[in-house]
Design brief:
With about 220 residues, the protein is mostly helical. It contains nine helices and four strands, in the order αααααααββααββ. The protein folds into two domains: about 60 residues, Arc Repressor Mutant, subunit A; about 130 residues, no CATH class.
Length: about 220
């Protein structure tokens, strides 16, 4: 269920609370009073008291609700977060659909048990993607990247930047002053596609995506 909200407190208790409540019942306290005193569910306590009475121990009993099984371990999800952040930093951020395909490929390559729908559609489910983003909301966010031409991406490096400022320094040495510097605005004509939203590092001030050309070029 995509946005399930719990409507009861069943299963929300600690092992120690339940064991203490069972002990109180064994000492003569009523089940209802013991449940109230330890903050556990009355019917659940009744079941544990019955189990203790029949088996003599609760050592092998499970307590509370188990965490819903994740497809990937916490370690693998951490690696996926790092990969998504790195991909965005080099202008090849993953869209939500690409993230889902990446999750399927990763699970398939590592022989991880996945829901049948993943195999059918060759990608993870939308619920998984939303829950993944929710689990890592402090690290990831859906962002709209700025279109960045491949020319700018490949040419913006240390050598070219240094060369630019060397040429600028030579130009100034010939006697050009600030009055000779003109700021040419872009034409405003959009000749390239607008990138889709991508998964990127939360808090990043600038996010880009590679396109063939930028606006006005």
């Amino acid at each position: 269920m995509r946005n399930y909200v719990r409507h009861s407190d069943r299963g929300k208790f600690t092992r120690d609370n339940m064991l203490s409540a069972v002990q109180l019942v064994e000492n003569g306290m009523s089940i209802r009073k013991a449940a109230i005193e330890q903050g556990v569910n009355y019917k659940t306590l009744s079941r544990y008291v019955k189990v203790k009475s029949n088996s003599g121990t609760l050592d092998n009993a499970s307590f509370g609700y188990k965490k819903v099984r994740q497809v990937f371990s916490d370690e693998m999800e951490a690696e996926m977060v790092r990969y998504a952040v790195h991909a965005a930093s080099i202008f090849h951020g993953l869209t939500t659909t690409e993230l889902r395909r990446f999750a399927f490929d990763l699970a398939d390559a590592n022989s991880i048990h996945i829901p049948p729908s993943w195999t059918e559609h060759k990608m993870a489910g939308l619920d998984w993607a939303k829950n993944f983003m929710k689990r890592h909301k402090n690290d990831l966010a859906i962002r709209s990247p700025e279109a960045t031409s491949i020319q700018r991406m490949t040419n913006f490096n240390e050598h070219n930047v240094n060369s630019f400022f060397d040429n600028l320094d030579q130009a100034f040495s010939r006697g050009f002053g600030p009055e000779a510097i003109w700021n040419v605005d872009e034409t405003g004509v959009i000749s390239v596609q607008r990138p889709c939203k991508i998964v990127a590092k939360r808090g990043a001030k600038q996010v880009g995506a590679v396109v063939s050309q930028e606006r006005g070029h």
